[in-house]
From TrEMBL:
Sequence ranges assigned to domain Thioesterase in this UniProt record: 183-256
Pfam families: 4HBT
Signal peptide bounds: none
Tree of life domain: Bacteria
Name of the protein: PaaI family thioesterase
InterPro entries the record matches: HotDog_dom_sf, Thioestr_dom
Coiled-coil residue windows: none
Length: 266
């Protein structure tokens, strides 16, 4: 399934290839995209892919009067993931999701990420089952022509606010195109932005670049783009070969909406 460019999935280039209760498959382009804070290749869009396909497999398990919202996302990558992606940038990354365990208050989806014939990561998405909201924003159904914006920051509607030292900040601009069906910033966009600021807080210099190994995100409350909405990251530890960063998404009201922990290795 191709999504219109005026939807978050279409803007990020996501395509759904299979959609069944026991198996969902989707893809996203990653090669050639740069972190706007560091201008180096990034795997951040994989968080968007994982949130979509893992959330979808959970969503297909809901009852008729239920909806689902992401509550946790965890992504684990192989040490050579970025090398595999950049070696063949024209090929998208594929994610295959399956349900994991029984349905309860929340459901867990297990994902496998591949690029060509190489496994580059695994991921999980946990979703809460809630009563269906009284109003859902209808995504445009018309098929728009063209391609997503070339720059990742334009796809995500983010803007560099601060970088350097041990901190990094991206502003989340208000843009209905990157909102989900309940009118808040799509969870995959937010998770990808947390990876961007987290990896940027570690810095792009050194004897060799940092490689994101894991990203763990908790969704605490609704997050909307606005004048003061932003993603911030600060390093916890930077060693010779490993680093750890805490990141958060903060809304216009100053409340923390998402938190994340990123680990990376050289």
């Amino acid at each position: 399934m191709h999504y219109p460019l005026n939807t978050p999935l279409g803007r990020m280039g996501v395509q759904t290839l299979e959609e069944r209760p026991d198996r969902c498959v989707a893809s996203i382009p990653v090669g050639g995209l740069l972190n706007p804070l560091t201008r180096v290749p990034t795997i951040a869009p994989l968080a968007m892919l994982v949130d979509h396909v893992g959330g979808l497999i959970n969503h297909l398990r809901r009852n008729e009067d239920e909806w689902t919202v992401s509550s946790e996302l965890a992504l684990e990558l192989t040490p050579n993931a970025i090398d595999v992606v950049t070696a063949t940038p024209e090929a998208p990354v594929l994610a295959t999701a399956r349900p994991f365990g029984p349905k309860g208050t929340g459901s867990l989806g297990l994902c496998e990420l591949t690029h060509g014939d190489q496994l580059i990561g695994t991921a999980t998405v946990r979703s809460f089952h809630i009563h269906a909201p009284g109003h859902l924003v209808e995504w445009p159904a018309d098929s728009t022509e063209g391609a997503p914006p070339a720059a990742l920051e334009d796809r995500m509607s983010v803007q560099v606010a601060e970088t350097g030292g041990s901190t990094a900040v991206l502003r989340q601009l208000p843009d209905p195109v990157i909102n989900n069906s309940i009118g808040i910033v799509h969870g995959g966009v937010s998770a990808a932005a947390l990876e961007l600021v987290g990896s940027a807080a570690l810095g792009a210099g050194g004897r060799e670049p940092w490689r994101t190994a894991s990203l763990r995100v908790n969704y605490l409350r609704q997050f909307r783009g606005g004048d003061e909405s932003r993603y911030e990251a600060r390093t916890l530890r930077v060693g010779r070969s490993s680093g750890a960063v805490d990141a958060q998404a903060i809304g216009d009201d100053g409340a923390v909406a998402l938190v994340a922990r990123l680990t990376a290795y050289r």
